[in-house]
Amino acid sequence: MSPDALETLRQVNHNLRSALIRLRPERKHCSTIRPQDFSDLLAQLLRASECLASGSLKQRTSASATAALKQETLEYRQNLEKLKHFLPDVHVRLLAERSRLETARNHLAAAAAWAQARSKTL
Q1: pLDDT digits (tens, 9 = 90+) for 9-53
Q2: Residue 9 to residue 4: CA distance in whole angstroms
């Protein structure tokens, strides 16, 4: 295993932890969630996938490097499990936010139509 592969897994795990905190389900409003957040998340998952699929992880390593790799791989798996349970909640919150925004847009359009009709009658 190359040191770069282990470092890549460490960085991916750090970024996934940060994303899980930033997008946590305790937040009631989705206004802080950006499309870029999901692009970044996908990029991290692809990075880890390439790293884990590469042959560089299968080379002979020292016991400490093997232990570090096992730890990072375990943490990566735990992060994936958290995402598996977390993303459906984010999806529901985003759908609710979209519905709220559509309702507000419809209300605004009705108010504008009323104001325009009102100004014509005066």
Answers
A1: 999 999 999 988 888 766 556 667 888 989 999 999 999 999 888
A2: 9
- pLDDT tens for residues 102-115? 999 999 999 999 99
Give the domain range for residue 17.
3-86
For the chain, the C-alpha Rg in angstroms (whole number) is 23
64 vs 118: CA distance, rounded Å: 77
Please report whether residue 114 resides in a domain. Answer: no
- Three-state secondary structure of 6-72: HHHHHHHHHHHHHHHHHCCCCCCCCCCCCHHHHHHHHHHHHHHHHHHHCHHHCCCCCHHHHHHHHHH
pTM (2 d.p.):
0.73
